[in-house]
Design a protein that fits this description.
Layout: E1 4-11, H1 29-38, E2 42-48, H2 49-58, H3 67-70, E3 74-78, E4 91-93, H4 98-107, E5 112-116, H5 119-127, E6 133-139, E7 159-166, E8 172-178
Length: 182
């Protein structure tokens, strides 16, 4: 079975929204190593509409080495406001229920599945038990306002720490899975 994972930039106070505004002075080799180790394991990416809009506007013409990974990879987009077909290379709109789609996708042959950004997508898959692991890349910064992984109505959800590392700039890379015995 394929593994579904997500890696999210976070502040110490739990903000995950708009990391470009607060994380780049803390980006270090440890973060780069994590990303370059984990990303090649995936041959599929799941995006929400906002992340799709941002990435599809940037990556097709980007002058960055990451474009060689992200442009050709299979991309599925969870959106109720977009209609297909999608223009960006190897992008397809998810038809029907997101959770059921990902459950079925996990059963198919292939590499790992990465959920990129898209807090609402990550939240849905985590709470449904479909997300196998989540890595929070916690930067030593307080941001204050912004979206967090959970909402006020999120039920208590137990996690198990499966890996951790502190980078040279003090980023805590914490990887969790749903606790199996709950």
């Amino acid at each position: 079975m394929r593994t579904v994972s997500a890696s999210l930039f976070a502040s110490v106070d739990g903000v995950l929204e708009n990391p470009g505004g607060w994380q780049f002075d803390q980006f270090d080799d440890g973060l780069g190593e994590l990303m370059m180790t984990e990303l090649p394991k995936s041959d599929t990416v799941i995006l929400g509409r906002q992340m799709y809009d941002e990435w599809s506007a940037y990556w097709p013409s980007a002058e960055d080495d990451f474009k060689d990974y992200i442009n050709p990879i299979k991309k599925y987009v969870a959106s109720t406001s977009l209609s297909g077909p999608l223009e960006w290379e190897n992008s397809e709109l998810i038809e029907g229920d997101l959770v059921e789609f990902v459950r079925e996708l996990k059963q198919q042959e292939g590499g790992d599945i990465n959920v990129a950004g898209s807090l609402s997508v990550v939240r849905q898959l985590l709470l449904a038990g479909v997300l196998d692991k989540i890595t929070l890349m916690i930067h030593p910064v307080l941001v204050g306002e912004g979206k967090r992984l959970t909402e006020e109505v999120t039920p208590v959800t137990r996690l198990t720490l499966i890996d951790h590392k502190i980078t040279e700039k003090g980023n805590a890379l914490m990887t969790y899975a749903l606790k199996a015995d709950v």
